[in-house]
Amino acid sequence: MKGVNHYFRDGTIHKGGTHKMPDGSLHSGAKHTKNSKKLFHMKELSKTVQSKLKKKKK
Q1: Which helix or strand (DSSP H or E) is residue 50 part of?
Q2: What is the dihedral of CA 3, 52, 34, 36, to 10 degrees?
């Protein structure tokens, strides 16, 4: 979704380009390379990572 933050699995925010894979998942980078990593929305992250991110905001 545009206008929504995207995160790596560890909770690090991604600010670069993105591309959508054939299965619908979003990955980092404008084009797929061996360094592309899957991206997540906040609600898709583990509860542990979500709580760490919420604590950082305070």
Answers
A1: helix 47-57
A2: 0
Predicted local confidence at residue 7, as pLDDT: 97
Q: Which amino acid is at 49?
A: V
The beta strands (E) that lie in the chain are given as: 6-7, 13-14, 18-20, 26-28
The answer to whether residues 40 and 46 touch, using CB atoms and an 8 Å cutoff, is no
Mean pLDDT by 10 residues, the chain (58 residues): 87 95 96 96 95 83
Would you list the domain boundaries of the chain?
6-57
Read off the pTM. Answer: 0.86
